[in-house]
C-alpha cells in the first residue's frame, strides 16, 4: 500500500511540475494583423508608433512579452498626461488579448493532450495517494497522532511553500492574468465543451481549478471521516453545489444567452449584486433575469433568517458555500492552525462585523448612485471611496489572496472567520434567533482536546464541554468535526426548541446540572 501511495505522489508531482512548466513551453510573437484585430480602431493610431518596435520580435517567456506590451501603452499614456490630453488616456487592458493571440507552441498545438496529462495524471496520482488511507490510517477520524510535528501541518517549510505558491497564484490571477495566459489556454477545451462559442478566461480557469480541488479533496474528506454519515453527506453536498451550481450552471446559462448567475451566491458575499451593470444585465434579460434578481434579494432577506432559525448558519457555510467547500476539503489539513486565543476572538469579532458594516455602507452608496444618477454621496465619490476600495481590499485581497493563501499559516477558515460579511450576517441571526446549538455532556469529557484542536473557527470547544455548556457561538459553522473527533460522544449537533440554548450549568463534582437562566 505504501508503494501505491508513493507512486501516486510521484505522479501528482509530475503533473504539477508539468503544469508549472507551461510557462516555458510557448513563444510569443506580435504581428501587425494581431494588433489591428485586438486593439480598438480609435486606439490604433495612438499606439501604432509605440508598438512598431515589438512587431515581429519573438519572446520565449510571457513576462518580458507582457511587460513590453504594457510598457508601450504606458509610454503613450505618460506622453498624454504630460500634455494633459486626458481624453486620450488608454484604460483598456490589451495585454491579455494580445498575449493570447500571439502565443504559439505546445500549449496551442496540443492543448487537449496537455490538459489530459496534467489533470488526468494529477487526479490518478492524488487518488492513489488518498485511497490507501482506508487501510493504512486505521480507524476513521482524527487521532492525537503528532500532526503538529509535520512540516505541512504546523507552519513548517512545506506549509510555507504551499502558502507562498497559493498567494502568488491569487495575485497573478486577480491582478496580472496576462502572465498566466498559458494556464488560461490550457482549460479552453473544457470551456469549448460547455460552450463551443466561448473562450476560457482567468475566471473560468479559477472556477475549474476550484471545482477540481473540491472534488478530489472531497474524496479525501469522505475517506477520512467515513465513520460519520453527517460528514459524508455534508461533503457530497459542497461537492455538488460547487461543481453543478457554482461552476457548470452559470456557464450553461451563458451558452443559452442568459446572464451568468450563481444561484447559491448572495449579497453581501456577492458584493457586486447591486452594481448598476449587474442590475441592468439582469433586468434587461427578460423573465429569467427578473427571476434571478428577485431570487437574489429573497435569498438574503427571507432565506437567511428562515433557514438559520431552523438549521443554524451551517445550512450555508458548511453545506452550500463555495468558500466553505474549499476550506472543508482542500483546507482540511490546516484546520488545527486556527488561533483559539481570546485575543484572536476579539480581533475576529471586530474585523468580521466591520467588514459587514463596510459592505452595507458600500451597497448604500452604489444603490444611491444607481437610483439618483449622482456619483457623489455626502460629497464623496461613491466609486472612488466605497466601491473600488471594497472590491480591492475585501473582494480580492482579503477573500482571495489572504483567505486561501493563508490556509497553511492561519488555518482553513481565515476568510470565513475574520472577513466574510455573509458569515457575520448569518452568525448574528444564529446567535440570537436559532434552534441550532451544539450540546455537551461535561461528565463524559476526558479533556483530550481533539475538539478544540480541530475547530477551524478558533472556538475552544473543550472549555464549553468541560462545563457542560451549549455552544451557541455566532462564528460556529456547524461543520461537526468537533463531534466527529470526540472519542466519548460528548458533543452533539442539534436543532431543538430555542428554550435552553443559553442555559448555564451548575457544576457538581464531575457532573453538571443545567438550570434555566
From TrEMBL:
The chain crosses the membrane at residues 113-136, 157-176, 203-223, 235-256, 290-311, 350-370, 390-409. The keyword Cell membrane does not apply. Keywords: 4Fe-4S, Electron transport, Iron, Iron-sulfur, Membrane, Metal-binding, Transmembrane, Transmembrane helix, Transport. It comes from the Bacteria. InterPro entries: 4Fe4S_Fe-S-bd, 4Fe4S_Fe_S_CS, Electron_Trans/Redox. Residues 436-464, 467-496 form the 4Fe-4S ferredoxin-type domain. It holds the Pfam family Fer4_9. This is 4Fe-4S binding protein.
